């Protein structure tokens, strides 16, 4: 079986960088041929410019990616592929029965999960690897677990088994405390399905699944940290959308419609990469230094506070938040980077230049790339769309390359065994 990949919502190429162990010296990209990326799509609907797309094609070639709304693309025209990958937004996946029975079930327009589901239906890729924020497992707040339940039923209806795990990158030796849920699906036509469908769910999650083998967990089973349900007990996706309410823990699997979920804990990692290891050596440009005028605001934003606020109905309530380290600790992995990194806000990282004299700075764009494990200056391209602010935004939106690199190597073994 060929190692071919289709990359949806490609961003600046995090999956490709990890899977093919990409190196960049500032001029040339060196890419291993572990996987053949046969098609990619990146389109940002909220901006006129397409900075991420510009970066992708500058690094991987003019014809490496399509810049078009995925909703307007005929999924049958996407090349056949062995593996579908993508990091997609956590949205409202609710569905409804259409007025015309001919149309069957309708999801909300613009919700990107349905574009993935269309690819599954049209192309039936043997394997799928997706990444999302961990709150996906418990959204929406009014009907816990409904959105992920809809996803699982979509996979089931298209003939897939699924494994998932919330991975905190820092707990496995990577330089950022970034929690993301990774979802691995495999089609019933694969040898891998035939093999893994015989493995008891608990063994799949704790010992033998893709995440258990690559991101070790403690062999601890909590009585109140496990749950199961059958996805087949629900008539269809519409019924799940209306009625489903279920607590998904941070790990689990669905095989032949049987859903089992467990609360798991990572094995303590002996080696770790700290924020201090990611910093550029020597002095940085003065534009990254926090001015004396804005320092007071920074300290306020980072400090604990209790504020009286009003609800839309006029009712008052007390909003409180705890303090964030100021400056950030250099002897620990970085906190989760957000798209607002580098701006004057509570979540941005602050580095002490001379703490005794109250001199601090924000991260440089290169440092944010290192924290996400991209090559230095990966987003430093000759494009008007890619401003320095957009470089920070790209890294706040990206995935930790090292996590998918590890998964990519194991997936090579799985695909090789299909032959």
In the CATH scheme, what's the topology name of the largest domain? Rossmann fold
What CATH architecture label of the largest domain applies? 3-Layer(aba) Sandwich
How confident overall, as mean pLDDT?
Answer: 93
Ends distance: 6 Å
Strand content: 15-25%
Gyration radius, in Å: 22 Å
Count up the helices: 12
Order of adjacent strands in the largest pleated sheet: 4-1-5-8-10-9-12-13-11
Say which CATH homologous superfamily of the largest domain is assigned: Vaccinia Virus protein VP39
The coarse overall form would be globular
Written account of the structure:
The protein has 419 residues and is of the alpha+beta class. It contains twelve helices and 17 strands. It has two domains: 4-270 and 400-417, 3-Layer(aba) Sandwich (Rossmann fold); 280-329 and 338-368, no CATH class. The chain has a nine-stranded mixed sheet with strand order 4-1-5-8-10-9-12-13-11, with helices on both faces. Strands 2-3 form a two-stranded antiparallel sheet. Helix 4 (146-157) runs antiparallel to helix 8. The chain is globular and about 65 Å long. The N and C termini lie close together (6 Å). The model has no long low-confidence stretch (mean pLDDT 93).
């Amino acid at each position: 079986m060929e190692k071919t990949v289709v990359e949806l919502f490609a961003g600046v190429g995090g999956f490709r960088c990890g899977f093919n162990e990409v190196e960049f010296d500032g001029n040339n990209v060196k890419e291993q041929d572990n996987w053949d990326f046969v098609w990619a799509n990146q389109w940002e609907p909220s901006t006129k410019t397409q900075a991420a797309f510009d970066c992708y094609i500058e690094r991987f070639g003019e014809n490496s990616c399509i810049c078009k709304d995925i909703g307007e693309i005929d999924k049958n025209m996407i090349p056949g592929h062995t593996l579908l990958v993508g990091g997609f937004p956590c949205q409202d996946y609710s569905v409804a029965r259409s007025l015309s029975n001919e149309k069957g079930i309708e999801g909300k327009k613009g919700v990107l999960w349905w574009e993935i589901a269309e690819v599954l239906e049209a192309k039936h890729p043997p394997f799928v690897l997706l990444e999302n924020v961990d709150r996906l497992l418990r959204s929406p707040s009014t009907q816990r677990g409904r959105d992920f339940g809809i996803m699982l039923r979509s996979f089931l209806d298209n003939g897939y088994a699924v494994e998932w795990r919330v991975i905190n990158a820092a707990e496995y030796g990577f330089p950022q405390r970034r929690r993301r849920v990774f979802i691995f699906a495999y089609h019933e036509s694969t040898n891998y399905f035939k093999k893994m469908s015989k493995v008891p769910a608990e063994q799949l999650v704790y010992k033998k699944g893709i995440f258990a083998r690559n991101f070790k967990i403690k062999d601890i089973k909590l009585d109140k940290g496990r749950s199961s349900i059958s996805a087949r007990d629900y008539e269809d996706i519409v019924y799940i959308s209306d009625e489903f309410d279920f607590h998904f823990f941070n790990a689990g699997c669905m095989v032949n419609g049987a859903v089992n979920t467990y609360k798991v804990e990572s094995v303590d990692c002996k080696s770790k990469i700290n924020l201090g290891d990611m910093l550029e050596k020597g002095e940085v440009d003065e534009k990254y230094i926090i001015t004396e005028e804005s320092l007071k605001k920074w300290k306020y934003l980072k400090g604990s506070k209790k504020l009286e606020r009003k609800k839309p109905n006029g009712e008052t309530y007390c909003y409180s938040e705890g303090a964030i380290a100021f400056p950030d600790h250099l002897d620990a992995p970085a906190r989760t980077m957000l798209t607002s990194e580098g701006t004057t806000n509570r979540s941005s990282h602050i580095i002490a230049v001379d703490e005794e004299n109250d001199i601090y700075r924000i991260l440089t764009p290169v440092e944010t790339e290192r924290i996400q494990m991209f090559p230095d200056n990966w987003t430093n391209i000759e494009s008007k769309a890619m401003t320095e602010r957009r470089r920070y935004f790209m890294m706040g939106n990206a995935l930790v390359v090292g996590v998918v690199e590890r998964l990519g190597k194991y997936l090579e073994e799985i695909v090789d065994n299909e032959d």
